[in-house]
Amino acid sequence: MINRYINGIAGSFILLSLALAHYFSSNWLWFTAFVGANLLQSAFTNWCLMGIILKKLGVKDEGDSCRV
Fold it and tell me: Does residue 62 belong to any structural domain of this protein?
């Protein structure tokens, strides 16, 4: 369950930051890069901060790949 939330949040952040970069400032692309770097880091370390945050908010971990 947590992994689905993480994918949804990351995808939303990327699309939002791309829209903000298009309409306001290209500096928003740094946020896109930050989200992508976190996803890449999570693939190698199997640790993600968003997973910890979601678990503290009460989202159940049902054996997803993102260890918290």
Answer: no
Residue 68 lies in a domain: no
Say how far apart CA 68 and CA 49 lie, in whole Å: 8
Q: What is the pLDDT of residue 63?
A: 63
pTM: 0.80
Helix (H) or strand (E) holding 16: helix 2-23
For the chain, how many structural domains are there in total? 1
Q: What is the rounded distance in angstroms from the CA atom of residue 9 to the CA atom of residue 51?
A: 11
Tell me whether residue 42 is in a domain.
Answer: yes
* Chunked mean pLDDT (size 10), the chain, 68 residues: 92 97 98 95 92 92 59
Contact 51, 66 (CB under 8 A): yes
**Is 41 part of a structural domain of the chain?**
yes
